[in-house]
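look at this stuff:

>
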Amino acid sequence: MKIWIPKNKEDLKNHLNDPLFKNAYFLMLSSITSAGSGFFFWLIAARFYATADIGLASAIISAMGLISMLSLLGFDISLVRFLPEREDKQ
């Protein structure tokens, strides 16, 4: 694997202006922010609510996530697969 290291500020600026890399960095930042927010939410919730309540809420949220993932039935991936091949690009 080759690691790219910018040699000067202009290389770094061009790299960050590339839409592919810019969007990738925003996605990574979004994931990190979401994970951090979730961690601090559960940390604060654990201080204010009983252990049984936290366990129940965690189980319900996990079940909702599983149900929402299963309800897609691969529809989101099929859009990525078949939409570019459509003849009418509307």
